Model the fold of this input.
Amino acid sequence: MKRRACATILLLMGGWVFWSGVGYAAGPIVIGSVEPFSPPGSIAQGSEAVAGIKLAVEMINEKGGLLGRKVEVKFEDSMGIPEKGRAATEKLIVKEKVSLIVGGNHSSVCMAMSEVAHSYKVPFVNVNCWADAIREKGYEEWFNTSVNNSRISVGGAEFVKSLGVKRVVALAENTDFGIGLARGFQKYLKTIAPEIQCKYTVLDREAKDFTPAILELKKDPPDVVVTIMDPPAGYIIINQLYEYGVAPTSKTLLLDLDALAELPDFWDNIKQAGKYLTGIALFHPSMKLTDLGKEVRKRHRQKTGREASRVVFQGFDAIWLAAKAVEKAGSLEPDAVIKAMREIKVEGTRGTISMNLEKGPFFQQWVEVPYSIIQFTEVQQPLAKAPIVFPPEQKTAELVRP
Amino acid sequence: MDVLITGIIMGTFYALLALGLSLIFGCLKVVNFAHGEFFMIGAYVYALIALKVGMNPFLVLIWVVAFGLIIGLIVERLLMRPLYQKYTEWGAMRDEYAIIVTFGLSLFLINLANQIFGPYPISGPGLMPMKERVLLGNILMMSSHRLIAFCVGAGVLIVAFVLVRYSPWGKIIQAVSQNRFGASIAGINSTKVSSIVFALSSALAGLAGALLCPIFSAEPFVGALPAVKSFVIVVLGGMGSVPGSILGAYLLGVLEQFGAVYISYTYRDTFGFVILILFLVFRPQGLFGEKAREV
Done:
């Protein structure tokens, strides 16, 4: 009787072990991810990135995992604070023993995390940190599927030049991303259109009332006001610019260079101030997607009932690139993965991703991140219906003023 | 002139928040670190009722005040009262307990809001549609919401001030603030008074949050900065002084705006702290506070 009971227990245990590990040769490959899940970080963007990362893991595991092993992701909270991001990265590497890391929101956090990844020599794929300064460090462990400030600066400046305006003021948040992008935008605009006067003002991203800065503009409104601020400050300043009658008006155009228009809570927070707003969009539903991108878009819509934002695609692309590099390397050995990531060409959601190896702001960066400038012509207008006003080859309508 | 007007408007919202903090300190001798989170709760209650139920925003303000009173009563009963009920004299109470409790409550409420409402900011509708703007004397254009919110805020401030200063209930609050033990001997139920004061200040903070919700958006961390400013104001005005906190709020509101426009926007939040340091050095009792020494 005792023997039979023991045999039954052993059989059950054996069965459990077999079924729980079915299809996988060994334990899971653990990938780390650091995103902001608490204030003052942009929780909205962190959540969107996580949605993309989880979709990628789901699709990788459906195809048998990586190197015959299941993939798992350990998430840590950066809170949008550099020292928290640094500690979270170190914890993932030292305690969780992750093989590689994807993630990052807020450039100042990525600046701190890149130091940890570099010192431990762990490959890191950046999801949504735009500052050029991170790329300019030239760390071989650091890869960027996220767009960078230089790319956005070029897009914004080319658009402003096309307007034939005389004076531009940029309002940028006090972070590496904000100041870096404002400087890059100003510098590039000066190069391509020296006749346009451009200055920028740095604002506190934790502030709630921007009245004094807006009253300054009210005295002598410029032709274009450019906002470079993450939510919620980005939403607040757009509302206050409208409230005080500074922009958008028939004289002053409002241009958002933080791609806020793609975020799911944009219209919950902007309302009337969003009408006539122009903004850079790194994803627009009429933009061309790869087959993989179409699948991601479909799955995201099924899961959430919402259109995927560009951060979802960025999260997906980051881990997808990392997974393909591991496959090519055939191991998790950092040098091999880094070498593979530098050489590989991967079909991502919005195009073929490859890394530029020239030192500078585009070092180990996917250069051709697609973008467009859209304009909302109605309140609560879905992004899919917002016309593209720049660049000319994508243009679907002329720019409209109030 | 436009700078002065916007300074006075911001000062009114600061005053609503600081008045409650000052009352709590005066009556309970507790520095409430969770005061900003009552502001946050007010903003969420306003946004959610107005958006989900579709109620008239003016009626929603009444609900916000009622909700603030209830939350204040609950928090006072569960968390504050155990701190002081055994003591007849405030000097015997351990201040650090109150700091730990209110600080813990602040963190708890922020994280609770994050869990319940999610990460996305929510902007409530204006008391008037946000697209309607008014031009004040050809000097300053602003949303009619901001103007009406200012009028509501100023009206509530005046009523609160008159009640605390001149009504029989206000005199009871003043008595408890001056000497809790003495007030008890005179037959005043100081526990009940403390409870009402806490509820009232919670309602005032909630109202400030609701009035600013269409401008600032409700999100878990929205109360942090206004709360810091109200601490500065309470010290400027004199700890526990009602007229002091109102005057301090207007002083800070106007000073911030002028400093930001005429000196530098970058140091906007620094001006308040510079004034605070000057006060702490040259007039530590604040504008209306009295010099005191405890033995």
